[in-house]
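Good morning C.,

I know you're traveling, so I'll keep this short. The sequence:
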Amino acid sequence: MAEDYSSRVSQCSAKNAACSSSLTLLRLVHRWRDEAVKAGHRITRIIVTYEAGRDGFWLARWLSRHGIEVHVIHPTSVAVSREHRRAKSDRLDIGLLKRSSLGWLRGEEEHCTMVAIPTLEEEDAKRPYREREHLVGRCTSITNRVKATLVRLGIRGFNPTLRKGPERLGTLRTPEGELIPANTLAELQRDMAHLRFLKDHIKQIESAREEKLKQAPEKPANSKVLDLQRVRSIGVDTADMLVHEVFSRELRDQRAVARYAGLTGSPDESGARRREKGLSKAGNARVRRSMIQLAWRFLTHQKQSALTQWFEARVTAGKRRKTMIVALARKLLIALWRFVTAGEVPDGVVLRPAL
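The tokens, ready to paste straight into the viewer:
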């Protein structure tokens, strides 16, 4: 929308923009366009920007289908006042977003950062492994709860994940020689049944994923997953996560890859002072956690690789292992990105036979 008319639009109450339906929003945008035309302005573009949030990207895709240019702003990229008690209201926030958006549209990219809008298929492809991750976390929580309940009774050494675990519950005894109390036993049995239920769901997700890989191995995403699986120390779960979270995105260079995962440093330089504040942690937390875990496994299964030897040399020279494992995770992510996109096998890395 023309810049001279955008100031008029930005003054509209946020309550008016909070439409009850997407069609109401579309009629509102068209009404603003018609008002601008009647006022003598020539409208060549209609642009809608909003902050990324829990509503996702459905609105951006829907507006794009109706011929409206949409940009989604990364919330943390907009500079705000650093005052301890700064004024905040819908009117002030709309003005701040308007100034940031217009600056970005003029080519001044430092004003804010726009989020890449994924397709519905790209979003849906992330659901299986994210659901599996959530279910695994719930299984761990239930397992810890069962163990904590038994420890409270003085019973140790019981493994709730065993197949015959529910059958053994009735035979367990406290140090006093008593059976587990009735109410506590019923609670444990419900927890064990819930645990089996969650594990069945995890198996369904894994089976569906394996079936998709077998049915369409030539698909770009499936092909990348199969390639990553060839690297010893990388399983199908890690490969699936890396492909759909990182390697399916159009990243400019290796710096963008590391920055997306939040594996870059945060320098603090002022005058003669030079120090590092640690990881930026501004990227994808799921990728960052997985890469640090993968880096530890990589040291075990790829001992002859150049990356492992680089790590061991730095640690031998006096560097802290905890610090260097993050650096290894960053280098490993970049090496895997090159392997998937350009076919460059990292030096010394052992590959499994192709399936």
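Safe travels,
E.
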